[in-house]
Structures are given as structure tokens and as C-alpha cells.
Specification:
By secondary structure, this protein is of the alpha+beta class. It folds into two domains: 4-243, ARM repeat domains (Serine Threonine Protein Phosphatase 5, Tetratricopeptide repeat, Alpha Horseshoe), CATH 1.25.40; 252-356, Immunoglobulin-like (Sandwich), CATH 2.60.40.10. The chain has 16 helices and eight strands. It is globular. This is DNA alkylation repair protein.
Length: 357
């Protein structure tokens, strides 16, 4: 597929309506398909296509929420992955007045796809009640449901509805995350780390408190804490660096830093190399930053990790890397003077300019 939105295509809709028809013989599949494939279908983005399907199902399934759920329960297991979010979306759109039934449905549907987006309106509707549900889910035997407790409660869930109260005070989330801080599933641990990283952007002290309680207790927990600190580490936050022992930047000397060529075209790559020499035994986090020229001529810094090592007194390490300036869907390059900087333990050591044309 050339575009993510194309997970919702004619083949998908035919399979969906055929599967529903098997479970609900009076289902008007042609009408549902007509409602979905209106003349603007090709112009709809991913979430717009998802919502079109959801609304069309509402128009053709039984009007009573519980009766429609009974059919969707039987249909959902046939649609896994991202495309399956139409089922939680149905609950999000039409289940807000049916709390208990909706919670059961979201718990089930998340095991085939994800209900992380669908829980957000319920959280806005009744935060205290939803927090209790998250706490219950955080102890669920299924890792998809446990992940929902963490992912659904993120203050800054990408593509999800914002939760302003969690941005201003994320402390209600912490008991949920503490239930998951040693979770056996990497799928869950990644979500916990992402949630804590969200929190760190506005309340770094809460992440510091969590690290003080949990770091060093278990290797899985250590991974969560380290991943949660990724934004603060890239910012060179001194407290974050000290948690992992990357405190000493002064005893590390940068040597022979070069980059070539000094003029490249968009689509080409920049090569750079350098050495670090340490005056004592210490831990080193080496990064490089590029100040990109943006569309209006301003510059924006992006930091990339190179390595994290223990280095001995008198030791020298050499590094060589390339960095591509090929346009991506997530980054477009512009002409102008760019700067590359080597950063050691949060301290910028040396910078070089180069031209992109």
C-alpha cells in the first residue's frame, strides 16, 4: 500500500460487511458499502475513513447499543492490527452513555487492535472512574489490556485527544504506571516509558522521583527509566544525565573533528569523524546535533545519539559516521548553512558549518 489510509480499501470493506452479514443475516451490506464509498472517499485521510466506516455501521446495525455490540464482538476477532480500531471507535462514538458495556467492549477490542484512542473521551467524561478502570486493567492477565492502561492514560498520546488535566497534574497516572514498572511484556514496558517521557516534558521532577524509587532495582525497570529520560537526555538536562552517570564532560577532550564535504546537495550524505580522549575513568554519552535550516530560514536543532560507553583513563576512541540529507515524509531539507556539533555528556564540544544546496 502506498498510503497508510489505504488499509481501509474496497477489499477491507467487503470483508467487513461479509463478516457482519454472516453474524447478522438481516444486515444491509450494499447500503453500508454505499454509505462508506461516497464520492469523497479517495480524499479522506486515515482517521476520516475510519470514522466514515464507524458512522456507516451505526446506520446499518441495530440501533440499540448492546445489540450492535453483540454483533461487533463476533466480528472484531477477524480484524487485527491498526485496521481493527473501527471497533473501539464505534464504542467511543456511541457508548459514552453505556459505561459498563463500553468498558467491557474496549477491554475486548484492544486485544485485537488497540482501544487507546477510544478511551480518551471516557477519561474526559469521568476522570476518577476511568482512573479506577485503568488501575484494574493494569493488573489484567492480557498484555494488550495492561498496555491500554498505560497508553490510554498518556498525557500527550499521539493522534489522541488531549487530556489537559494530566498535562497540568500527571500525578494520578503514577499508581497505574507503578503497577506496570516491572511488567514482563516489552510491549507494555515501551508504553510505560512513553507515558513517563510525556510526563517528563512538563513535570521532570515526577520522573526524577520515579527514577529514585525504581532505577537499579531490575534490568527491565532500568530500561523503562532510561527510555523515559530520552527527551531530557537529548536536551542535556544535568539531572537526567546524572541519573545514568554521564556527569563529567570536562575530562573528555575532543580531537580531530572533521566533516566532509563542506558543501552537499539535498539527497546526499555528510560524513564526519572525531576522536575522544579521556583524562580519567568515566562514563560517556556521545551525541551529535544538526542545526537544520527550515522553510522560512530559521534553524532548528535535532540531536542524535552516537554511543554510550565506559572509557578508561588515557584511552582514545575514534568514531566515523554519515548523515543523510535525503528528504523523508517526516523531514524535508532546505538550502542554507547548517551546523553540526559534537556533544559529550550534555556539553557541546565543537561545531562545524557546512552548506546544503
Amino acid at each position: 500500500m502506498s498510503n497508510l489510509k489505504d488499509i481501509y480499501n474496497h477489499e477491507f470493506v467487503q470483508k467487513l460487511t461479509h463478516t457482519i452479514k454472516k453474524e447478522y443475516p438481516s444486515f444491509d451490506a450494499p447500503k453500508c458499502q454505499t454509505l462508506i464509498f461516497r464520492e469523497d472517499w479517495e480524499d479522506l485521510a486515515l482517521k476520516q475513513r475510519m470514522r466514515r466506516i464507524t458512522v456507516s455501521l451505526y446506520e446499518t446495525l441495530p440501533s440499540k447499543f448492546n445489540e450492535a455490540l453483540t454483533i461487533l464482538y463476533k466480528t472484531a476477532p477477524h480484524f487485527t492490527g491498526l485496521s481493527g480500531i473501527i471497533f473501539p471507535d464505534y464504542v467511543e462514538q456511541y457508548g459514552l452513555e453505556h459505561w459498563e458495556e463500553s468498558m467491557g467492549a474496549l477491554e475486548t477490542f484492544t486485544q485485537y487492535s488497540t482501544s487507546e484512542f477510544a478511551v480518551r473521551p471516557f477519561l474526559l467524561l469521568n476522570q476518577e472512574r476511568m482512573i479506577e478502570q485503568f488501575l484494574e486493567w493494569s493488573c489484567h492477565p492480557n498484555d494488550h489490556v495492561r498496555r491500554l492502561a498505560s497508553e490510554g492514560s498518556r498525557p500527550r498520546l499521539p493522534w489522541g485527544i488531549s487530556i489537559p488535566s494530566f498535562k497540568s497534574d500527571p500525578s494520578p497516572i503514577l499508581p497505574i504506571l507503578h503497577n506496570l514498572i516491572q511488567d514482563e511484556s516489552l510491549y507494555v514496558r515501551k508504553s510505560v516509558a512513553n507515558n513517563l517521557n510525556d510526563i517528563s516534558k512538563t513535570h521532570p521532577a515526577l520522573l526524577a522521583d520515579t527514577a529514585a524509587k525504581w532505577y537499579g532495582k531490575h534490568h527491565d525497570t532500568d530500561w523503562i527509566i532510561k527510555h523515559a529520560y530520552r527527551t531530557l537526555l537529548k536536551k542535556g538536562d544535568k539531572q537526567a544525565l546524572s541519573v545514568f552517570g554521564y556527569e563529567d564532560g570536562e575530562s573528555i577532550r575532543l580531537q580531530h573533528f572533521t566533516c566532509s564535504p563542506d558543501r552537499i546537495s539535498i539527497g546526499e550524505s555528510l560524513s564526519f569523524s572525531f576522536q575522544i580522549h579521556s583524562a580519567k575513568n568515566t562514563k560517556v554519552r556521545a551525541e551529535y546535533a544538526i542545526d537544520y535550516v527550515k522553510a522560512r530560514g530559521q534553524r532548528n536543532k535535532k540531536v542524535f545519539k552516537i554511543t554510550e560507553i565506559d572509557i578508561h583513563q588515557g584511552e582514545t576512541r575514534a568514531y566515523s559516521k554519515t548523515h543523510s540529507f535525503r528528504d523523508l515524509s517526516t523531514r524535508k531539507h532546505y538550502k542554507g548553512v547548517h551546523t553540526i556539533t559534537i556533544i559529550i555528556n550534555g556539553t557541546p564540544k565543537e561545531s562545524l558549518d557546512f552548506i546544503v544546496n
